[in-house]
User: Fold these one by one.
Assistant:
Number 1:
Amino acid sequence: MNRIKSAFQKKQKGLLNIYFTAGYPRLHDTVPLLQALATAGADLIEIGMPFSDPLADGPVIQASSTAALHNGMNMRVLFSQLQGIRESVPDTPILLMGYLNPVMQFGVENFCREAAAAGVDGVILPDLPLDDYVQEYQDVFRRHNLRPVFLITPQTAPERIRRIDELTDSFLYLVSGPGTTGGANTQAAGVQDAYFQRIEDMKLRNPRLIGFGIGDKASFQHACRYAEGAIIGSAFIRALDGVEDVPAAAQRFVQSVVA
Amino acid sequence: MNPTYQHPTERGYYGQFGGAFIPEMLYPNVEELRDNYLTIFADPEFQREYQQLLRDYVGRPTPLFEAKRLSEKYNTRIFLKREDLCHTGAHKINNTVGQILLAKRLGKTRIIAETGAGQHGVATATVCALMGMECIVYMGEIDMERQKPNVYRMRLLGAEVRAAMSGSRTLKDATNEAIRDWISNPVDTHYIIGSVVGPHPYPDLVARLQAVISEEMRKQLLEKTGSELPNYVVACVGGGSNAAGAFYHFLEEPSVQLVAVEAAGHGIHSGHSAATSVLGKPGIIHGSRTLLMQDEDGQITEPYSLSAGLDYPGIGPLHAFLAESGRARFISIEDEPALKAVSECSRLEGIIPALETAHALAAIGQLGAGPEEVVVINLSGRGDKDLETYIKYADTIM
């Protein structure tokens, strides 16, 4: 069974998904970080594929991507680092998140083949349009058993949410409010809760993880009231700033959220 | 006749180029525009207001001036379409006047824009002042430095100018910041994109608003030459809005040679260039699939041109299609010949062109136009904003 599905079956509430940028803070931190996060109890792990011009990301993730590119990270390096990762991280679902252009240049078929061979379970490409996914990429994704994850925002129309729910078989990524990753949430709590509640009331087939603006135990627990779990990215990247022992910092961060 | 040059497909494709590659956060905004722009443009009340503003505010029609001394020098018949005489000094205002009316009809109260040379920023700040709308303009930190007069003009007009500090700190990064602002303000904000770039429907929307340039050219050419059709239409291309406007009503006229002039900076293969049609490969930038300067890993490379308005690593999808299909001829001009063209046009015709436009002027000698042939150059903007650069490079120019 796909690891994403098993993760949601095993634990139905309070799943923590941690995002980090491949090759950050140092080129060879990718694998130690993966291992440390899995050991510390992250339920899913998202690895960011750095891109020079990320549209949906805020300053923290953009800066980590710039640093990672400067460190020499690219798709070939990432796939070579991930080789054999399933020996040390057997069960935790791994997702790749990034933008379409580097994937297109690598070749979508090549990308899917390499990702599947490395044991990747899902892919998040925020600028991949639904129609293009269906027409051009769906077959390739399916052939390699990769699950797409799509974003939903407070402005996404109900019929589009239903279509997104039909098109995937992993989880729905609920963007908490208007803004890029790591932004302060400017929406009134009531408005945001009403949106989360509205999605919950739709009784969708896929579980939901809430992301953007989730950064600590309090915001994580709040998000978990309305969804199966939540995603933390920018706050985790910030926690790695200037740190020598990166795996230890990852352990501490996960503990601070879930303990 | 190939109708696909003028009109993209329903999903915004010109051949393989175009589309709308945007994060979900922007989907409702872009969908709202896509569903409404053609209906709004077709509304007689919109047209009445738009045409009136073009005439009474922008100063249209702009003259088509026969440049006799340039013609004599190059032994061909050269006309200059005087977009530099538009209010605010460049063609950019044709688009911003149309888009502010569009934004009002969509109920938006806040306007954002990106700018390279500052001309689009000034044009946006101007129409926002006219309509009493809040205006925020993103501009690369480097561009703010090299186009200071335009930064002050925008501020004088009441706009807030925000510096884009990431990447190359030029037009590409200003566009990233504007898109992020739009993501953060999805309901009340309209993003006035200044060129024929971005997700569908922007390339088509901006091309239609700039098409007034070639519409007037045809009428004026008929008056002055007895034919609506010239032999050549020449325009500079960064994103490509002035070129799209100058080409638009000639796209389906195969006898008219369309010439797009890109900035080659220090030389096409010098590593300091913005010649996208030569150096670019198909890729995705700012929401559309087009020709894009990038490395083998798909990371967008930083373009270079002395001219802030041409310093962009992509071109609009229509232009990518014109390049790929061969419908337009692309010429690359380096910084130095562009600077020399500034003094040539200034001294021979008494018109100081913008540095962007000077690239188009510098291509005249490469056209191979004969003595009886008619060449129209879109004089997209005036050079006042570039005076500081012209002073700095006085040794090259004089």
Number 2:
Amino acid sequence: MLQVDLWKRVLIWMTVAVGLILATPNVFYNRVETHNDAVKAIDAGFDTTENRDAAATWPSFLPSGLVNLGLDLRGGAHLLAEVQVVEVYEARMEALWPEVRDVLRDARDTVGTIRLQPSATKGELRVKISEAGGIDRAMELVRGLAQPVVSLTGAGSTDIVVRGEDDVIVVSLSEAEQQAMDNRTMQQSLEIIRRRIDEVGTREPTIQRQGYDRILIQVPGIGSAAELKAIIGTTAQLTFQPVISRTTDASERPGAGNELVPALDDEGVFYVLEQAPVVTGEELTNAQPAFDQNGRPAVNFNFNPSGARKFGDYTANNIGSPFAIVLDNEVISAPVIQSHIPGGSGIITGNFTVEESTHLAVLLRAGALPAKMVFLEERTIGPELGQDSIDAGKIATMVAFVAVLVFMALSYGLFGIFANIALILNIALIFGLLSLIGATLTLPGIAGIVLTVGMAVDANVLVFERIREELRTAKGPARAIELGYEKALSAIVDANITTFITAVILYVMGSGPVRGFAITLGFGILTSVFTAIFVTRLLIIIWFERRRPKTIEV
Amino acid sequence: MRLKLVPEQTKFDFFSRPALWLGISAIMIVLALASFGLRGLNYGIDFRGGTTIRTESTQVVDVAAYRAALGALELGDVVISEVFDPNFRDDQNVAMVRIGAQDGEEAVSTDLIEEARLALAEVATDIKFVSVESVGPKVSGELIRTAAIAVTLAIGAVLIYVWLRFEWQFAVGAVVALVHDVVLTIGIFSELQIRFDLAIIAALLTIVGYSLNDTVVVFDRVRENLIKFKSLTLKDVLNPSINETLSRTFMTSVTTLLALIALFVLGGDVIRGFVFAMIWGVIVGTYSSIFVASTILLRLGVKRDWSKPVDTTGNQFGDIDA
């Protein structure tokens, strides 16, 4: 007959209680959020009384997990960037040139004179030797420069591939090295983006690698994607390069090993620079906004010891010649070296505004991005729109909720009320689950919850209709209830599994808001089956045990 | 006194005119496909690439003036539409501006948005861009592909599940009903030219789930009755099965519709298209589970003798719980 073991009852109520406790923080959203922010700040070392007070607004023994609000509800910016990983190959090859030059120069007897040739394909080094007969020896020498690749998949291979075409040696990166390098580039890009966004200081940004060469960046609370792009879109590749000449001819051929770089401030002015830099921004240890002796905004910087030594040596040997400070392929300034600069600190001047110099300092401090990024997708949602969406969603959910509750009560009377209690618990359980895994609630997610409110009663409806049918064949109330649950079970399971399958597919295939919808829909199915099969049943059984009705009306 | 949408016991004959119902569905499908072929879908930027800007100002939106202001920038394909919503404040005038993808650009540049802002500020001084969304052509192509895969996967997964749990005839009936619902939904979107974006795909998949939910409940009863009444003809089993589940079908559809209508009216204009798709899906899904899925099942016939061991390999899982 209608019996449920005590341990099962305890388990059901405990599950409900845990769900309710986990959902509680969302009722006090602002307080809990302040508490969480403060706790994080204290953990990060900002142990001020202010933060301590803020942390005390929510008791620490209670759970503090919240349903995160998605960008479409809170406002913020979303960017999908593609890292131009191939660009890095080029820089790598450029850096290899001096080494190749030196090793071949030592074997001048067999290979003759050497010359760097322009290459049509990027990331390839073409070196022409005058003695075609020495090509084998030359290739052997260059191969000697190869290093083993350090990666899991590329074990046993070396980093460069050397082949000969008549009197030209072509050096390119091996596939294993390319892969290993792509991975490094992505790791580094992620790290640097994270640092740059942290410098700006907003709440909980999401920075994720997506697919092979993409990065997804979501920053809540920022004004616009444009602002975010300005912070993370700049490569901030700083180099100090020797100047060969200055020109106004944009089509001038710089010659092998050199490059033509435009000036940042003077339109139409170009510099011919040696491609290999003396020192790069990677050797900077610090950068801060400052003012130069004329009171104009500038950026102060410091090198690490090896950078300082290189910088010092170069300035000592080249007094009187100009020296270019290049940022992202534009010459910021090209001062003439007045004297030896030891100690490894300097100042970058240019026509900066205070804002620009601050920005540049932030970028230099966070480090240069290894490769350029192309933005494939960007979305900005204003905070007002987000707030409007939340308000509209709240009202709609309340109205939908009340409508369904009233309708159920009118249709099934007391049993409808039981179903309604289960429905209320159901919503609490969804929020409990969402908070537990720290899921993000989006606008379609709210729609998913509202849809759940409508569909959650389905399992109960199936059972109640079954009980009605069984009552008609006059088996007595207890038997009717039991049979109702028994017979409806297979329909409930089948019907919900199919919807659950679609929710899973949506989650796997979808992105952003669609995912949010899939999560609430999927959880809604789990919790509604639980509440309908266990909670409502338990409620009915408890009622039945107390009253022992001879007849029931469903 | 209970509220009853459907009388306690009904004896409708759902199969007296199978040709009529299938005919109506066929005509609807043809209309939907024709509309899709002729008018196409009003793809949002998710699928087409480009930029959508949602503007807000206290001045009344003058679409012609907006168009003139933006026309000077030579942005190519620009669509401007005013947005109405009963929940807006009196001085809240909202418009959607859609700018097509620019030649050779992966995403619309920041400068372009700034230019648009300046141009529009000439017309409406306090104009604000409350949301700006840009999708590059590369990503939009991928989004279309993933969306198509998702819908196909969902239908395929469902086909397999129903096939394993029931019989292949049930699976065919269920999937025909699903495709029917999806096609009709796409048809209404192309006919009314409602913006079709990523969220609508989510709605489509939910419709797949919901419609199936209905169909499976009916089929479950059919399976049960097939075992109970071994001597009756398939039609005489199908009819009472649908009648018996009719009350439940309507109850669930009504509660779901109640919730969705609340969301449609009060949930704001941002998700209205999405909710509309689901409302339509619930209505069409309810219809199709009764008239399409079952009629197909009737046409295909179904193996009746459940007691003998099954020797065909295809449906060896079919009678696990039968």
